[in-house]
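pinned: reference chain
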Amino acid sequence: RVPSKISKDLSLMAFLPNLCIPTVSNKSFEVEKKCDLTKERKSFYGGAAFVKPQPQVTDCRFEHGITVSLLAEKPSRQKSVERVKKALLMTAVKTPFLSNGEIDIDTYDKLLERQIQDGVDGVIVAGTTGEGHLMAESELLSLIGHVATKFGDRLVVVGNTGSNNTSKGLKATKEGFARGMDAALQINPYYGKTSEAGVLRHLQLLLDQGPGIVYNVAGRTGQDMKPSLLLKLKASEGFMGIKECSGNDRIAEYKKEGVQCWSGNDDQAFEGRVASGSGVISVASNLVPSLMRRLMDDPTASDLNASLQDLINWLFCEPNPIAIDTVLAMTGVVKPIFRLPYVPLNAQQRQKGLDLLSKVPASAVVGTQRRVMDDSEFVLLDHY
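pinned: its structure tokens
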């Protein structure tokens, strides 16, 4: 039984070993409601994409303005592994903000509902697109807990708990699993780079904590993890596969070795799916989820893929997530609020994006508004 009030006293955690306990403020918080949810989604290929009965939960409100649910029991790790393996389309979901700098959780939930409606299998919570690197650890973990317990019956939940600091990554990954995420996104040490032996040890320790997808993005880390290194991780029990940004040739090499891959490049995702059966962890699916779903499910969708290339390339005209943050404000689904150092696209870039959107069926685009917007409408936050 979950008591009607739970204090912050960390000693209480010893008496509630099966609960996913969030980090909370000094104020106690009230149990609000209970629910029991079960959901099944089918893909175009037929058959269940995943089925996950959700255990009974009790919703609790705590700091950062986020409502999280306490799970009566932690999710089965084996079920999490099975769900992740079946997820072809996962969205690196954008995190919207309020003018006070906090996460706009109501808008976040609406974004996820649209992702579910359009057939997305899972989400990366607080990834680079979701600006997890601009969050306090407690904020990131609170968001993971909220998504896992409110949407975990309908979406695979991958928390971005990786770090270039091994100790910090271990702590965040343990906490993320305690809050119910299915898997973690793990990255090699960036900025303070290490040797290949150091990278290997770093990732092995993190994968020992539970299911993990290793993220190779040399453009951000400055260090390309080659197959000769990453194939050594196959022996790790937690190794789920790789989010690979170096192209489809590399993905094909991994697939020959039986390693599951998700492309990190929206422009190459369709060709990779057809050639190697790989999925995608997508930025574009924030904006056009149903079309990215079709690219994953329909091997004859080459015309659709070709028609989306200009829009996808525009989404990366500046470092991600600048364009996706800007366009979702232009379509009216998020407030035009940026946490620095990110700033919106300039007016000329915004007009180009609007022109490209006009070529996409309106029903496929997230948001009903179409505005270039004035520079004065965007709010830049330097403290959050």
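why pinned: The radius of gyration is 20 Å. The chain has a mean pLDDT of 86.
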